[in-house]
Write a structure and sequence with these properties.
33% of the residues lie in helices and 16% in strands. It has helices spanning 42-50, 77-91, 104-114, 135-140, 149-154, 158-163, 168-180, 210-223, 226-233; strands at 5-11, 14-21, 27-31, 54-58, 96-101, 119-125, 251-254. The chain is globular and about 55 Å long. One of its GO terms (molecular function) is hydrolase activity.
Length: 270
């Protein structure tokens, strides 16, 4: 990955860490989720650059090597959107292809709705094209078990206490090994926390190495999980100022054939 260049760019008052490779006129911007950072896209960035594109991946505010916002509790998804567009302007990018995963898909969707002239195509991994606070999504959450990881992480302080029992690398290891399973145990019982659902010594997925865990662990140790738990989990139900929106750019949604946990009636959202 030595060809990947790194810099810090000013975006709406924060210095964001940006990684990029390639010099093509067409640009692909990768938007990570949780527990991810720019590093999550490193292989795709090289492949895209080899295909003649300019590939860019950033650490969102408060993640990895990017600065933390001063007023974390007031963050919304609109902040992420504004910072992505600010990076476009900083790099002189008029239009780009967006590739997103996890909560990065909310950001990509909002950029597509609010700034259609800046988006060539949108690819979303694992998350349908939804807006934060989308009402059908809100109606589904009461139907899932109270120990579901998403509901646990919505509660201020609970995940922090859960994660705080382990070092950062162990937390990252547990999350990746838990969700890699064919039957992920994503709902805890009343006397369990989410980190109790997987053993610290569970083998890593074949596509992840100890070096990867060390990289994620060191960067999350620097940034802490404070921003990661606030955004996206505790802002996903906040209004983004859009009741509805249509993406004009061509889109591609990539989902597994089998959902790891089927939220009742969730397929209607696809």
């Amino acid at each position: 990955m030595e060809k990947i260049e790194h810099s810090h760019e000013q975006a709406r008052g924060l210095k964001l860490h940006v990684a990029q490779i390639g010099s093509g006129t067409k640009v692909v911007v990768f938007l990570h989720g949780f527990t991810e950072i720019w590093y999550s896209w490193r292989h795709q960035m090289v492949a895209v650059a080899d295909a003649g594109y300019r590939a860019i991946s950033l650490d969102f505010r408060g993640y990895g090597l990017s600065e933390h916002p001063l007023e974390l509790a007031r963050a919304t998804f609109n902040d992420f959107v504004d910072e992505v567009v600010a990076l476009f302007d900083s790099f002189g990018i008029s239009k780009a292809h967006l590739v997103s995963n996890d909560f990065g898909a909310f950001v990509a969707t909002m950029v597509g709705v609010l700034h259609p002239e800046r988006v060539s195509t949108i690819i979303s991994l694992g998350v349908p094209f939804l807006l934060p606070s989308f009402s059908p999504l809100q109606t589904q959450l009461p139907l899932v078990p109270s120990g579901f990881y998403l509901l646990r992480w919505l509660v201020p302080g609970r995940a922090e206490a859960d994660f705080g029992r382990f070092d950062t690398k162990t937390v990252v290891r547990k999350i990746y090994t838990m969700f890699y399973r064919s039957e992920p145990p994503v709902a805890a019982s009343d006397n369990q926390e989410i980190m109790d659902l997987v053993d610290s010594f569970t083998p890593l997925p074949p596509w992840m190495s100890e070096e990867d865990i060390a990289e994620y662990g060191s960067l999350y140790e620097k940034s802490t999980f404070s921003t990661a738990l606030q955004a996206p989990y505790r802002i996903v139900m906040l209004s983004c100022g859009l009741d509805d929106g249509k993406i004009k750019a061509p889109g591609l949604l990539i989902m597994g054939e089998r959902l790891f946990y089927e939220i009742p009636r969730a397929k209607r959202l696809h």
